User: Which sequence fits this backbone?
């Protein structure tokens, strides 16, 4: 078979094998590449950095295990940042399957900073309601969260004593794998003026740039790249930075295959003409 | 009567919700909050509807030995296994999220790897599809191809190593033309949503009744 016909019809098993290898090898050999920090991520970092010590930051865990490799590094880095600045953290979420990931992150980070449950951080858990809840929390948290995820009355938690609605929340960090980010911005941001930072998957992040440009959000962390950038900023490289080398080689491989495919296509087309 | 009452309920609650969104003062504020709480409770019950639908369809598949009924058994077994783990964890520790509990064991060692694997498989399909689909057949396809290549290189550290301007151009593409196009799309979606919502509230759209 003509070589150009071959390269325009590469067996997909070869593509899968090559992709698997270029992702696996950098991770196995712990390769690292320097990561450049983009402006939206720097803006997000600066906003949290400039909040007064002891500010209340609410995290909404709106993703599940499918997006865990991209967003979990963001959550870990941002929790580290918040605890370093001695901010108070309230965790909740719109995705029922996301809260265990939030709890796992909290369990990994909080002990490193001697953060105490109930005083320094709280996990309110999941309640159904989505938009209704987002609007309702603007009036009173206790209408939707009478107890936390441990079934402890919210009024028994020292951190929640002064927290009744969005007026008592200094920042919302929405970690998004779906359209909850749009809803947070539309219902909590636009309606109540809540300051929001969005951390989103690589697929969702492009949908958030117009909010960034209109200053409806205070920062945007997009995809694994964004997670890696935030890890660099908090000076604690983790799976985000580790994954970027694999992603780099995967992108190069993909472009290589696309170029080969086009080369074969154009030569075949020319010969046909 | 069968259709009039639901339509009336939709009209009254829809108008109240819209009005109270813009007028937070009493008594409308409290009314809105009450309706929002009711909505959240009803939404919780729809979970039961979903479970009923799932179980019913899969049990029917098993009983009638329909195609792929073996997978239905796996689904039911997984459902029962997770439910038992969750109920046991809740009654012994008062919370599903207790680290080291049986529910968190199921979540950490079953759900996370399975969900992550399913999503990771997409990368292989995307690679194969991109190789076959990204052909510069027309001017538009060529523009798309070049833009995608620049963004793919700009989003990874190796791109900056190849040429320092890739990340800069990528930033510009995402923050200017991409953002402008997305904004137009979102405005269109928002206008369509408003139009559809008005149609439902006013009873012109009645698909939800059947």
Assistant:
């Amino acid at each position: 078979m003509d070589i150009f016909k071959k390269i325009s019809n590469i067996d997909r098993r070869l593509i899968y094998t090559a992709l698997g290898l270029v992702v696996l090898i950098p991770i196995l050999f712990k390769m690292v590449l320097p990561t450049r920090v983009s402006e939206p991520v720097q803006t997000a970092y600066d906003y949290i950095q400039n909040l007064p010590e002891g500010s209340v930051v609410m995290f909404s865990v709106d993703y599940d295990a499918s997006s865990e490799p991209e967003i979990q590094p963001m959550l870990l880095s941002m929790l580290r940042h918040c605890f370093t600045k001695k901010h108070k953290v309230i965790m909740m979420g719109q995705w029922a399957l996301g809260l265990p990931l939030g709890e796992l992150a909290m369990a990994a980070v909080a002990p490193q900073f001697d953060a105490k449950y109930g005083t320094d951080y709280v996990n309110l858990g999941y309640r159904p309601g989505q938009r209704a809840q987002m609007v309702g929390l603007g009036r009173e948290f206790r209408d939707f969260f009478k107890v936390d995820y441990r079934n402890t009355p919210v009024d028994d938690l020292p951190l929640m004593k002064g927290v009744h609605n969005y007026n008592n929340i200094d920042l919302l960090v929405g970690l998004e794998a779906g359209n909850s980010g749009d809803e947070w911005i539309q219902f909590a941001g636009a309606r109540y003026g809540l300051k929001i930072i969005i951390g989103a998957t690589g697929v969702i992040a492009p949908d958030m740039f117009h909010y960034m440009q209109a200053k409806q959000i205070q920062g945007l962390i997009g995809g694994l790249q964004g997670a890696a950038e935030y890890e660099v900023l908090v000076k604690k490289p983790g799976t985000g930075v580790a994954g970027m080398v694999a992603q780099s080689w995967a992108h190069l491989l993909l472009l290589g295959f696309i170029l080969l495919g086009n080369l074969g296509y154009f030569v075949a087309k020319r010969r046909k003409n | 009567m069968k259709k009039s009452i639901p339509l009336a309920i939709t009209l009254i609650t829809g108008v109240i919700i819209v009005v109270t969104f813009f007028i937070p003062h009493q008594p409308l504020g409290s009314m809105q909050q009450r309706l929002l709480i009711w909505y959240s409770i009803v939404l919780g019950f729809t979970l039961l509807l979903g479970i009923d639908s799932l179980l019913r369809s899969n049990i029917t598949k098993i009983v009638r030995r329909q195609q792929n009924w073996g997978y239905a058994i796996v689904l039911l077994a997984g459902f029962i296994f997770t439910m038992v783990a969750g109920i046991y964890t809740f009654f012994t520790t008062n919370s599903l999220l207790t680290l080291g509990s049986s529910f968190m064991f199921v979540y950490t060692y079953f759900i996370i790897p399975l969900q992550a694997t399913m999503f990771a498989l997409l990368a292989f399909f995307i690679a194969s599809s991109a190789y076959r689909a990204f052909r510069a057949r027309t001017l538009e396809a060529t523009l798309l191809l070049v833009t995608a290549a620049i963004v793919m290189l700009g989003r990874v550290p190796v791109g900056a190593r190849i040429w320092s301007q890739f990340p800069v151009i990528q930033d510009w593409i995402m923050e200017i033309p991409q953002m402008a196009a997305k904004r137009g799309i979102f405005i269109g979606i928002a206008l369509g949503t408003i139009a559809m919502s008005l149609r439902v509230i006013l009873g012109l759209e009645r698909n939800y009744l059947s």
Remarks:
- Chain A touches chain B through 71 residues (CB under 8 Å).
- Chain A is about 50% helix and 10% strand.
- Strands of chain A lie at 56-62, 88-93, 121-126, 171-176, 196-200, 220-222.
- The two ends of chain A are 19 Å apart (CA to CA).
